[in-house]
Amino acid sequence: MSAFLHFQGVLTELHETPTYFALTCQKQDHDDIIILNIAKETLLFNSTTYESLQASDLKPGFFIHAYVHKHQPATRIFPPQISPTLVVANEKDLFYGVKVGTYNAATSLIETDLRLNIGPNTKMLAEAGQNIEAEQLDGHDIAVFFKMSTRSIPPRTTPNMIILLDD
Questions:
Q1: Which of 9, 29, 118, 145 could anchor a disulfide with 25, C-beta 3.0 to 4.6 Å?
Q2: What is the mean pLDDT of residues 48-70?
Q3: What's the rounded mean pLDDT across residues 46-64?
Q4: Nearest-CA neighbor of 44 among 71, 62, 26?
Q5: In CATH, which superfamily holds the domain spanning 4-90?
Q6: Whole-model pTM above 0.70?
Q7: Superkingdom of this entry's organism (predicted)?
């Protein structure tokens, strides 16, 4: 079971404060609202190019996928406010594969859901942006970005990019 919770919705409002951006999002298929507090250390990427984004690049109407560690504290108010570890966004509802979880090098699995075939073109980065080696991923939480996977159980993929989340 993943240590991360996944939220997806549509950005309805964006407010800048001195220390963070507050993204008001409405869940897709629901009227529920959530506020994502995006600090400067929050990882923010485009869902199709995997390029890093700034919170100021976002606009109302963007589609948002946010990943939050399940043990992260959150305020108990309505609407709920959370500070995600990773946000993936796009102007269109077009998202390739993103999987967040703990990597096991012995089985090449992230959680039990996805087998990774790390190739020579797989970009591997720490949160701060420096390049890392595959050996550094074992037992750590990672975010995997991929465009295709097999239909096997578990599915297999050669990721385009991997980010080490807990360096």
A1: 9
A2: 92
A3: 91
A4: 62
A5: Nucleic acid-binding proteins (2.40.50.140)
A6: yes
A7: Bacteria
Side chain identity, residue 37: N
Question: If pLDDT is split at 50, 70 and 90, which confidence band does 1 have?
Answer: low
Report the sign of the C-alpha dihedral through residues 130, 113, 97, 153, in that order: positive
* C-beta of residue 95 within 8 angstroms of C-beta of residue 68: no
- Name the band, by pLDDT with cuts 50, 70 and 90, for residue 108: confident
- Distance, in Å, from the CA atom of 34 to the CA atom of 48, rounded to the nearest integer, reads 24
**Bond into 73 cis (ω within 30):** no
Domain locations in the chain?
A: 4-90, 97-164
pLDDT, position 97: 86
* Secondary structure, 3-state, the chain: CCCEEEEEEEEEEEEECCCCEEEEEEECCCCCEEEEEECCCCEEEECCCCCECCHHHCCCCCEEEEEEECCCCCCCCCCCEECCCEEEEECCCCCCEEEEEEEECCCCEECCCEEECCCCCCEEEECCCCECCHHHCCCCEEEEEECCCCCCCCCEECCCEEEECCC
Is it the case that residue 166 has pLDDT exceeding 80? no
